[in-house]
Amino acid sequence: MTRDDLAQARLMNQQIAHPTSKEPSQVVAGLGAMQAQDYASALWAIGLRLPNAAETFIEQAIADGAIVRTWPMRGTLHFVAADDVRWMLQLLTPHILARRERRRQQLDLDDATLARSGDLFIQALQGNRLLTRAALMDLLEAAGISTAAQRGYHILSHLALTGLICLGPRAGKQDTFALLQEWRPTAQEMDRDEALAELAERYFTGHGPATLQDFVWWSGLSVADAKAGLAAVSTQLERRVLDDQTYWMSQATAAAVKTSPSVYLLPSFDEYILGYRDRSAVLDPMHTRKITPGSNGVFRPIVVIDGHIVGTWKRTLRKNTVEIVPSPFAALSQAEERAFAAAAERYARFLGRSVKQG
User: Which of 224, 251, 287, 316 has the greatest number of C-beta atoms within 10 Å?
Assistant: First the structure.
């Protein structure tokens, strides 16, 4: 396997090239989970993996409860398929809760306070009601529970991590919250071994070729648990070696149909870069600081050509248009510029706008 082979296989398995899914839930389930702390970027991350999807189509899937936004892994917001939300939370969040115990103590958030907060949320949200973050904070304050100094955020995330609440559809630009049991009452549960195997299968099928270390990073599992999950499904996967590193991917990976140059405009925080601990196979390390200029965990949208990250891009929304300005690491060829223009047009159609290139 060469680096070009790896890049092309990832494009195929992540459904960026030649997508086969028809619904947002299929895209999300195929990758296991998708990073979603930036809402607009997360919508496009799903949309670019569907043929001719519009932003409104993704938001309808959220409103219908087909995909759910919550904190299943690494303490970071992700989209997960609705049927997967319960078993993923049960498998992945105990590690997060254990790591947060000291911070809970510092914020004086004891079990009684969290239980009381949960009771208040149940009373306020039952009957499939949706409330904004601000409304829930007001509810806590009115009950004498301080939300200052990040206490409000930790209460919300703790109750999401323990499966009481999840995010619902947006109200304008505001997040809303719902009771998970009412929002997705049919979410599946699994025993731990089954869940480890399922998560490993989803990851290596949707992200492969990837290493065990990549899986540990993405999932937040311990090395021992990640090894157990991989061992349970290794016979269903294909093993490849590159630079003395062992990679795993689906045996069903289709042969890439190479149409060079293939140009894709990926959003910030996309799984194509965030889904791996080691990103050097598709991103020259000398350009890493251009993707995360502040070294603060904030990622810029990326330009991908033939599977390799070759630059960043920025959008500016106007009334009926979107201006898209590329910042390539090196000058693009004429063919690449034409392919970039086509990719920009596709993104504009997703937003329901026309494109103005900078």
Answer: 287
Residues 72 and 178 in one domain: yes
Q: Which of 303, 304, 306, 302 is nearest to 259 (CA)?
A: 306
Buried b (16+ CB within 10 A) or exposed e, 20-59: ebebbbbbbbbbbbbbbbbbebbbbbbbbbbeebebebbe
Model-wide pTM > 0.90: yes
Q: What is the pLDDT along the chain (358 residues), one digit of tens a residue?
A: 899 999 999 999 999 998 999 999 999 999 999 999 999 999 999 999 999 899 999 999 999 999 999 999 998 999 999 999 999 999 999 999 999 999 999 999 999 999 999 999 999 999 999 999 999 999 999 999 999 999 999 999 999 999 999 999 999 999 999 999 999 888 788 999 999 999 999 999 999 999 999 999 999 999 999 999 999 999 999 999 999 999 999 988 755 555 668 999 999 999 999 999 999 999 999 999 999 887 777 899 999 999 999 999 999 998 899 999 999 999 999 999 999 999 999 999 999 999 986 6
Shared domain for 97 and 176, answered yes or no, is yes
Q: 238 and 39 in contact (C-beta within 8 Å)?
A: no
Q: How far apart are CA 219 and CA 262, in angstroms?
A: 29
Q: Which domain holds residue 59?
A: 16-183
**Whether 57 and 92 share a structural domain:** yes
CB of 220 within 8 A of CB of 88?
A: no
Identify the CA nearest to 168 among candidates 34, 28, 59, 38. Answer: 59
The answer to the question of residue 147 being in a domain is yes
When divided into structural domains, the chain yields a total of 3
Last residue of a domain, one of 228, 250, 272: 250
Beta partners for residue 34, in sequence order = 79
